[in-house]
Amino acid sequence: MLNEVLIGALTTIVSVVASISSLAYWLGRKFASIEARFKIIDERFKLIDERFRLIDERFKSIDGRFDDLDRKVSARIERLAAAFTNYQEFFVEFLTGEGVIKPAYRELLVREAKRTVELAAADPLSKEEWGRLKEYLDKSERDELTLEEADEFLELARKVVKEHGERPEAWRLHIYAAMTRALTIRRHYEREGREERR
User: Which of 16, 76, 91, 137 sits in a 20 to 30 Å window from 177, CA-based?
Assistant: First the structure.
């Protein structure tokens, strides 16, 4: 009887071990299959990552080209604005110096130029520069500017145009400053001529 119990237990143990072994073998094959699939998926992700890396490099290259283009366009616009500013100064000073633009037009330009002072809130010009600009506007109406002040007045007007070139008031201020400088120069030479005649 002990033998029978031992044989029965042994048979049960062998069948359980055989079942466990076959289950372990089956699970091992399934895990191997799953692992192989994960390796394939990992390879695909590596390919996708490489493609994204290449796309990122292309975008960086394109961004670099846009940055270069932006710098070139900005530089050309600044040169064009400077050329136009210089042309306008020359033209206004020449016409004023020749008496084509009459001093009477100054009142119109002064009103327009004073509107520019409203731009002072959001501007790189210092408070002192805005104060001098306002002072020069007031002095210029009374023809009290020296040559140095007229030069500084024009320089401040250039700064306003550079910062606020999209605003017509800035250009009117610039025209007025150029006209004032021309009239100041003209007055200076007229005074020198009178003193030489004495």
Answer: 76
